[in-house]
Amino acid sequence: MDTKWKYYAGLVAVAAIWGANFGVSRSALETFDPVLFAFLRFGLAVPCFFLLLRWKEGSVGLPWKVKLQLAAIGLVGVTGLEIAVMYSIKYTTLANASLLNVAPWPIFAALFAPLFVKESFSRRLAIGGAAAVVGVSFVIAGGEEGFDLSSDHMIGNLLAFGVSIVGALYNLCCMSLMKRYSSLRINAWIILFGSLFMLPFTLGSWGRVEWSGLEAGHYAAVVYNVIVCTVVAFLVWNASMFKIGAARANFFRYVVPATAVVAGLLFFDEAVTGWQIVGAVCMAAGLGWISTERRREPARTLIETPGMSPK
């Protein structure tokens, strides 16, 4: 039986989790500085990753050369990306940041994939990807805020576009390392290094939080971010991406803004426009078209290790 559908389902589920997090985290960010909140998310996830790694695989170590690689990936792919996303939102509109962070990412992943892994860019992927790009553009730019290309937002726009390029490279670097090590082991060390590098950026933020005044909703938002959005989501996404291929998998990031729109409707009574509905249908059609293609692989150069099953 073809099991690829469970990996596509994993990608959709994770993207929906990340999209719903826009609604979950919005109220928490009124209390926490954004970089501090990101640090809590990743920093508190570190012991979870390493305990799980020890339990599943019996060890947590890696060669020093690999640790140095993962330190660089964590610095750029966790610390750098998270901070860049925050500042892109600060210096441009939310619609601009969402569109430029999300839409080009899968395209760059598909273009750069042959440099890291043996993946082909098929005609079906091109057609389905194009439909998904159009769809997600309607979902984001079709909202009330729209898309603004004025010079006032140029810095934020460039930061957001840079996130797509660096994010695609980050995914592909993880893919190449998962030929030798499990998704769980790679994620544990990347999150550890990313958290350590992020810590200095939070030093001025701890004292501004009224810790005694935190309510159940704040703790729930932190737990959701740590356990669901980071530990579970990162493991499922990377394991599914390893099986499906980076080029195909990253187009499923387009479910994130669609779910964010639904979260805005449910949590904050935000309006959904006709263009957004059209975009969601177009995006779903494109992703469905991509997922029906049978992936051609070379005689298994991607060596599966114990612990590479989706978590």
Describe, in plain words, how this protein is organized in 3D.
It contains 12 helices and no strands. The protein has 311 residues and is mainly alpha-helical. α2 packs across α9, α3 runs antiparallel to α4 and α5 packs parallel to α7. The protein is globular, with a radius of gyration of 19 Å. 44% of the residues are buried.
Envelope shape: globular
- By DSSP, the count of extended strands is 0
Structure class:
mainly alpha
Uncertain segments are: 297-311
Mean pLDDT: 79
The succession of helices and strands, N to C, reads HHHHHHHHHHHH
What is the alpha-carbon Rg in Å? Answer: 19 Å
Helical segment count: 12
Helix proportion range:
over 70%
Task: State the separation between the terminal residues, measured CA to CA.
Answer: 20 Å
How much beta, percentage-wise?
A: under 5%
Report the biggest beta sheet as strand number plus sense, adding barrel if it closes. none
Task: Give the key terms.
single chain; 311 residues; mainly alpha; 12 helices; disordered C terminus; DMT family transporter
Structure, briefly:
The chain is mainly alpha-helical and 311 residues long.
Reconstruct the topology from this structure.
Layout: H1 4-28, H2 34-57, H3 64-91, H4 94-102, H5 104-116, H6 123-141, H7 154-177, H8 183-198, H9 216-244, H10 246-251, H11 255-268, H12 274-291
